[in-house]
From TrEMBL:
Keyword terms: Signal
Gene3D superfamilies (alphabetical): Immunoglobulins
Keyword Cell inner membrane part of the UniProt annotation: no
Ig-like domain ranges (all copies): 29-123, 130-217
Alphabetized InterPro entries for the sequence: Ig-like_dom, Ig-like_dom_sf, Ig-like_fold
Name this polypeptide is given: Ig-like domain-containing protein
Signal peptide as annotated in the record: 1-19
Length: 217
């Protein structure tokens, strides 16, 4: 299962009133969401599981509350995916991927008896970082007007790949080719002057023979 860890560190601050006031700061446990897949599928269910990250103190929790787009799953209307979500113990089961079930998911719970010092424990409510899920998809390149890139000889030419397709799971494998040299994936050959980037192509030390039309594949 894939793990999504909360990027926010939660702290507990205790104040002890005595002759010399002292403040102690303790790091609280973090909730994480584990998934059996990184995207939603129309034909297969997706299981989300709420867990305590790095649970060295062997803490436990009894009841988990799930949220989608900041709304409780138990109160979610059908038009927002409520009919396709099922709570299974401490897990959340997304029965099928659709545009209704796309969104951000979080779990929350109350953890009791968290040890801070030898004689001090606390109870606290924790919530995980949001996990964004989208259904599997692949779209076409969007249509854009041709872009003209002007560069002096010897400089670096940067050519963007516009209208990138929306691909889940991604990112897609995209490269550029030059008109008249179709089938040669620039940036993936032994010619080190061509560097493929996630957004297009860079040509180091541009030469006159580099002039021409380039397109994304």
């Amino acid at each position: 299962m894939r793990t999504v860890k909360n990027a926010v560190t939660l702290l507990a601050i205790l104040y002890f009133a005595n002759a010399a006031s002292q403040v102690f700061i303790f790091e609280l446990p973090e909730m994480i969401v584990k998934m059996n897949t990184t995207y939603l599928s129309k034909n297969h269910s997706t299981r989300l599981r709420c867990q305590i990250f790095d649970n060295v103190a062997n803490l436990s929790f009894r009841e988990v509350y799930w949220f989608k787009d900041s709304l409780s799953v138990s109160e979610l209307p059908t038009k927002k995916g409520g009919a396709e979500l099922k709570v299974d113990g401490n897990d959340l089961l997304i029965l099928r991927g659709s545009h209704h079930t796309e969104g951000e998911y979080q779990c929350a719970t109350i953890i009791e008896d968290i040890p801070l010092t030898e004689n001090t424990t606390i109870n606290t409510r924790l919530i995980s970082a949001p996990v964004r899920l989208r259904k599997a998809r692949i779209t076409r390149f969007e249509t854009f007007r041709s872009q003209t890139v002007r560069v002096r000889q010897g400089q670096v030419a940067r050519m963007p790949c516009l209208g990138m397709p929306d691909v889940v799971p991604g990112p897609p494998d995209v490269w550029m080719e030059k008109e008249g040299h179709e089938g040669v994936p620039l940036g993936m050959t032994s010619n080190l002057r061509f560097v493929s980037t996630p957004n297009g192509l860079q040509i180091a030390i541009a030469q006159p023979q580099d002039a021409g039309k380039y397109f994304c594949v």
